[in-house]
């Protein structure tokens, strides 16, 4: 019987740094602004909407961070995803590979580790490439609700 690939045979905590990095599909959707509903007391509900507004450091074509090494200095609310916190990051896209593996789900066919091609995340309709605006172009927070989109929250192409 063939050995299981690392994302099936290991937990997130057991993965090497290279395996951890390889698990990211490069979709860029975690770098989009989210809006979270509040309850009547003004407390966060955990119910979020994605927008097509990208962090100022996200390259809208490559979907890579333009200053990864210094990201926390430049964007203080950038969240470092780890094996220890992924289960608490309820605002991560449902197609995020870290979330899928944490939930013991299979990676989809278009994930680069399955397809062998980093472009399949784009062609399958799961990347933010080419469909975001930079937060630097949406300076009035009152405009953010008009940027709510459903595609980052889908598990089907779109
Ligand atoms: S959502 Fe997950 S898989 Fe996609 S870029 Fe972010 S960390 Fe990587
Ligand atoms: S700083 Fe970089 S990694 Fe963090 S949200 Fe912005 S683009 Fe994404």
Automatic annotation (TrEMBL):
Pfam families: CxxCxxCC (PF03692). Transmembrane segments: none annotated. Belongs to the UPF0260 family. PANTHER family: UPF0260 PROTEIN YCGN (PTHR37421). This is UPF0260 protein ACFSM5_17655. It comes from Lacibacterium aquatile.
